[in-house]
Amino acid sequence: MKQSSYFIPTMRDVPADAEIASHQLMLRAGMIRQTASGIYSYLPLGKRVLKKVEEIIREEMDASGAIEVLMPAIQPAELWEESGRLGDYGPELMRLKDRHDRDFVLGATHEEVITSLVRDDVKSYKKLPLNLYQIQTKYRDERRPRFGVLRSREFLMKDAYSFDTSKEGLDVSYEKMYNAYTRIFQRCGLEFRAVEADSGAIGGTDTHEFMVLTEVGEDTIAYSDQSEFAANIEIAPVQAEYTKSSEAAEVLTKVETPNVRTIEELVGFFNHPADLMIKAMLFLVNDEPVVVLVRGDHEVNEIKVKNLFDKGVVELAAPEQAKQLLNCETGYIGPIGLPANVKVVADLAVQYVVNGVCGANEPGYHFQNVNPERDFEVSTYADLRLIQEGDPSPDGKGTIQFAKGIEVGHVFKLGTKYSEALGASFLDDQGKSQPMIMGCYGIGVSRTVAAIVEQSNDENGLVWPTTVAPFDIHLIAINVKDEAQLNLADKLYDELRNSRYDVLYDERPERAGVKFKDADLIGLPIRIGVGKKASEGIVEVKLRKTGEMFEVSVEELNEKLNEIVSKL
């Protein structure tokens, strides 16, 4: 492809609103452009990388026995009503009506559609197992789109769905997908780790996320320093042992605390450690108020709170909602003297607090010498906090450490959640009707591209792994006014393409410095410069990843390229 006629609008300056490397470099290298908040156009370079990742995914999915289909992005809302998710999925689900006032949704995921599809056409155990996948655009109305295509409202996703006759069959399907995902991300040149995870709005059990390790990751991985345990902190169980102080319970006292709201401010005001503070947060569970308590040195785990209430819609209350329901500002909420309709649940550590401090549900006041059960009742104690570094590993081996990661893939064992709700059943070998046993397997294709960029860059630009690079070789005619250089570059362009290399040929009438800067920014694995020694039949080869440069005669170029490619 000749660069003079190709659309690569590179940028010299870092865009002001691009916070992380992948967002900055994908914009600067001319891969993407923003159309609206969280909505991006993929330009030719970006599209080529997407295609390379898609090809890897298709090869591994096909090799695993999965079969490609394509389902509609617009889905009838009644399918989501059948599954029970129309109300549960939340505001991220984009909804619309057609001209006949019928309700539809834009596909955030496709469990309902695929289940109805298989339900209508597969009736016998003889047609199972079956695994169908697609690569298609998904839509989620993210509250805060950011980081470019890492968290956007429209994105490309590969989603697969397995149907089996038994849990043992599902185990086999799950393992095939787990292994296929491992190969996919290895081939994409990623450093990643598979971790235990929460199934979220998808549902099901026994799930794993595939996390690309990077410091800008939005997810935190909790892992043991002495074993293979690894989990997203959203679901990592806490196995800490707590002890209760033997000191006597003192008299409950209400203390004026003007402008003291945070745990840090309370620690300074009362001169007590944070583990004696009781932090209270107001949640709405199916629009009913619930106060969740944790110790001051711990953080509420919203996923665990949602899982405690299973099928409820659970959301953290906004400050104005707290004011309306409790007549209190956040920062002063506490479990004592709450309205009768407010339920109180607490993390396991809270019951061991002796003579603690909590909000008094009155601006500017806190209670001192608070003792659970004596001063307030808790309806349920459960593991409701985030695991912390230094906590014992849940498997009993070592202690917990943290690492940052970007989720690029997720595999779920759905069981019969959707097949029972939508009536997807089969006749077994005894002629008895049974619900299909399902699995679900997703890869964020566009997110994977951003994750690759996040891991594969340096101070000069992108450094593409060979398997996903938009082109194999960047051929540069350094001075197109020099007839010997231009003629040799034209000749090499034809020869390299005939050798089945994807070549980006820079024959623009630009200065050498501009061309080299663009080449480093775009980051193709191999750069071939045709310069002053063109008349001698010598070119300069540079490896983008290592920076290694050497001169090669045209006669030896193919052999040298074969040697280089075999090592990349």
UniProtKB/TrEMBL annotation:
Enzyme class: ligase
PROSITE patterns in the record: AA_TRNA_LIGASE_II
Keywords: Aminoacyl-tRNA synthetase, ATP-binding, Cytoplasm, Ligase, Nucleotide-binding, Protein biosynthesis
Annotated compartments: Cytoplasm
Catalysed reaction equations from the record: tRNA(Pro) + L-proline + ATP = L-prolyl-tRNA(Pro) + AMP + diphosphate
GO molecular function, one term: proline-tRNA ligase activity
Domain spans labelled Aminoacyl-transfer RNA synthetases class-II family profile: 33-465
E.C. designation(s): 6.1.1.15
Keyword Kinase recorded: no
Cross-referenced CDD domains: ProRS-INS, ProRS_anticodon_short, ProRS_core_prok
Family matches, as InterPro entries: aa-tRNA-synt_IIb, aa-tRNA-synth_II, aa-tRNA-synth_II/BPL/LPL, Anticodon-bd, Anticodon-bd_dom_sf, Pro-tRNA-ligase_IIa, Pro-tRNA-synth_IIa_bac-type, Pro-tRNA-Synthase_IIa_type1
Entry superkingdom: Bacteria
Chief location category: cytoplasm
The protein's role, per its UniProt record: Catalyzes the attachment of proline to tRNA(Pro) in a two-step reaction: proline is first activated by ATP to form Pro-AMP and then transferred to the acceptor end of tRNA(Pro). As ProRS can inadvertently accommodate and process non-cognate amino acids such as alanine and cysteine, to avoid such errors it has two additional distinct editing activities against alanine. One activity is designated as 'pretransfer' editing and involves the tRNA(Pro)-independent hydrolysis of activated Ala-AMP.
Family of this protein: Belongs to the class-II aminoacyl-tRNA synthetase family. ProS type 1 subfamily.
Record's comment describing the protein's domains: Consists of three domains: the N-terminal catalytic domain, the editing domain and the C-terminal anticodon-binding domain.
Subunit-level organization: Homodimer.
Record protein name field: Proline--tRNA ligase
Underlying gene: proS
